[in-house]
Amino acid sequence: MNEVIAVGALTDIGMRRATNQDAFLAERGVYVVCDGMGGETGGERASAIAVEEFTRLAADGERTRAAIDAAVQRAQRRARALGVELGGIAGTTISGIVLPQWGAGAAPHGAQPDAHMPGLVIDDWDATQPGAALDDSTLTGEWQAARGGWAAPCYVVNIGDSRTYHMERADSAVMAWDARTFTQLTHDHSSRQEAIDAGMGEAEAGRRIARNVITRCIGAPHGTHADVFVAPAHGRFIMCSDGCHGELEDATIASIAAAHNDAAGAARALVQASLDAGGSDNVTVVVVDMPADRAALGARLEDDEDLGDVHGLDDATVQT
């Protein structure tokens, strides 16, 4: 059994944008993607603010629902103030996973950007290796489950239309991942999704409603809050901005992700496929491979719930 969390993360400006307003965080058990909006300066700074606040969250060894909500609200206040300063809205999406604990026994080593695709971060460190040390170049981390006080559930956090997906390991000697198990864990906060929820067909909604009209973001004038789900921290999690899922069908994302055994290869391939499909927006992908095998069953947390309030997770279904 693989006892290591493996991470691959990559962001790209795309083929048509002048700046990259996307950002990501992949360290110490906090893995999120942010997609900024509100003009080049506003969007870029807003996504950076969200990453900064979740970096503060990552610095804590234990994370709770209240701590996640506090990080969201700190980012909300700062992004809203930035929007007022700039005379508009400076906002960002956020989507990803947060492990409730980060083991003190594990020390990630420095991750090196890929020379061919700037921004790619690869980390395949095993905590059993001697001599690993944290340095200033560390952008992602891995963690030895047996030594780190690992807890089975994790939080899935979402605001806006960036997405978090999951797939299970394959029972095959040929493929490591099973595309048939590909599942969207989060629920888009967008006008298109609202129309679909109200009964409009997906094809019609795609024709009539622009995909980038979102209904919730960090930095919104009237405040915001995150959807928070709980899911077992097993299998492969795929987080991406709409520069990926807006260019590629879910079936294509699943197929590409399943075709690459390692997290870094999957992240690289998904970004490249998004660029090949047009690259009309910034594109960011974070792939996290958790230890062990387990189905991606999960449930939405109510506003006053935390992990300790959820029972029977094995029998739950994903509710988005």
- Order of strands in the sheet with the most strands? 6-7-1-13-12-9-10
Radius of gyration: 18 Å
- Secondary-structure element order, N to C: EEEHHEEEEEEEHHEEHHHEE
Low-confidence stretches: 104-151, 314-320
Principal-axes shape call: globular
Global mean pLDDT: 81
Number of DSSP helical runs: 7
Number of strands: 14
Broad structural category: alpha+beta
- Ends: how far apart? 30 Å
Q: Please summarize the sheet with the most strands.
A: 7 strands, antiparallel
What does this protein structure show overall?
Helices cover 26% and strands 24% of the residues. It starts with 5 loop residues before the first strand and ends in a 19-residue tail after the last strand. A hairpin with a 7-residue loop joins β6 (112-113) and β7 (121-123). It contains 7 helices and 14 strands. It is globular and about 55 Å long. Strands 6-7-1-13-12-9-10 form a 7-stranded antiparallel sheet. Strands 2, 3, 4, 5, 8, 11 and 14 form a 7-stranded antiparallel sheet that branches.
